[in-house]
Amino acid sequence: MSQLNRDQLVQLAKSQITEISARELKRRLDAGEDLTVVDVRERDEFVQGHLPDAVFIPRGFLELQIEQHQPDRSQPLVVYCAGGVRSALAARNLKEMGYTNVISLIGGFNDWKNVGFAFKIPTVLTQEQRIRYSRHTMLNDVGEAGQIKLLESKILLIGAGGLGSPAAMYLAAAGVGTLGIVDFDTVDVSNLQRQLLHGNKDVGRPKVDSAADRIHDINPDVIVKGYREPITSANALDIIRDYDLVINGSDNFPTRYLVNDACQFLNKPLVDGSIFMFEGQVTVYQPEDAARGIEGGPCYRCLYPDPPPPGEVPSCAEAGVLGVLPGIVGSIQAVEAIKLIIGAGEALVGRLLMIDTLDMSFRTLKIKRNPECPVCGDHPTVTELIDYEQFCGMPSRNDHVESNERALVAA
Amino acid sequence: MATVMVPTPLRRLTGGQAKVIVEGNDIASLIHAVDQKFPGIAEKVLDGDGNVKRFINVFVNESEIRTLQGLETPVSETDRVSIVPAMAGGQG
Predict the structure, then answer these.
(1) What is the pTM of this model?
(2) Contact list, A285 vs chain B (CB under 8 Å)
(3) I need a surface site. Which of A8, A20, B38, B75 has the fewest CB within 10 A?
(4) B86 touching A, CB under 8 A?
(5) Residue B67 lies in a domain
(6) Whole-angstrom Cα distance, residue A90 to residue A16?
(7) B positions 6-45 inside 8 Å of A (CB)
(8) With a cut of 0.85, is the ipTM above it?
(9) Is A139 left (phi over 0), alpha (psi -120 to 50) or beta?
(10) B72 CB within 8 Å of a chain A CB
């Protein structure tokens, strides 16, 4: 086997690949050419600035990870490093893998920057975060970019009870930046059979306080905003406005209609879950948002235009609920919330997931937007928040101050 | 004939049965047949005018019957009809 020194190896590599200048690359990118641009430098170099839209794969991982970003061997790959030497060697390795159109950037990132072309300084995870979220970031659909989206996201939980408990705990562990929790209730011994946010020592404490303690124990980075008040037509828009999406874990109809309408008016996705005895329902109500290219789906009112008369549908307090059930339903809500934040997979929009734990069946039913829906239909008749107690055939909150005592007890 | 999936809140009328197999060519006749077997079901699902109550949805397999032919949607032996009421509890 012939022996090559450093310069000879680089020369050999350069003779086998194509090289382009920063100006040429810029021209081709501006022309809209579909080029996969790969930054093969080390992490400490990348974080100081990189080409816009570049994929970061340090050279040591290049052959192992390139297929995740560009499996098609015939598509063009542009590889760059700091000065064009490491990228020439990297390009040669990619040719060995069968990539036929591999290009190395002459002068690398330094030339790109010196010519004056725009570059991006990335938001990056801290050393501690890289370890904490490593099982996420190694997932192709999450990656460091997805994890950063989670860290920058704000999610509101209606209720810190059965559904809110697993949802809040998993979202906290997942690194959601801000968790808002609306719950005016205090912890009762009968909650502990299913509401894992709270423990024995918390009995009698406000749920927002014990929830905040538990969340901070899981992940101290999460900002918890507790709202120890019922959500009402007077405060709903102001509370929800600050969040990216809402997880519904309430257990009464007025709150469900209120939260649905407020989310529709504010264009916020609502991850809805409900439970009864051994059975659960989950779906995502995604409002149409043409400006952001979001098609949207039905809302709660499309599915259930009118509430049942009071007393027609018994509550969990009256009929009971299997303690593990909200664990399943709330966890699925957390999954849907994470998918929406990072933009992965297919959200549960226009589909109603029915879970029956007695025969352990998971069935998905199709649900459609109702063109005659009073809120999201073609000719809306409800355009502001109303009195939802009255709508549900109950005494109006305005008439009965003591209604605060019964509303919004989380499932 | 078809299989009717009974939701939890209505199972106290069916003696706890989650699935009921009854005769019928369309949704209306199925509901009638279930009601014959387990009196009270029709009253829970249909309003005074005989329409499906507005907090209940009825599906044939995956599709909601309003997107099909409503109560006249035909059903066959292999179809599964699901009655899905709003669930939210009442006042905790």
Answers:
(1) 0.84
(2) none
(3) A8
(4) yes
(5) yes
(6) 12
(7) 7-9, 18
(8) yes
(9) beta
(10) no
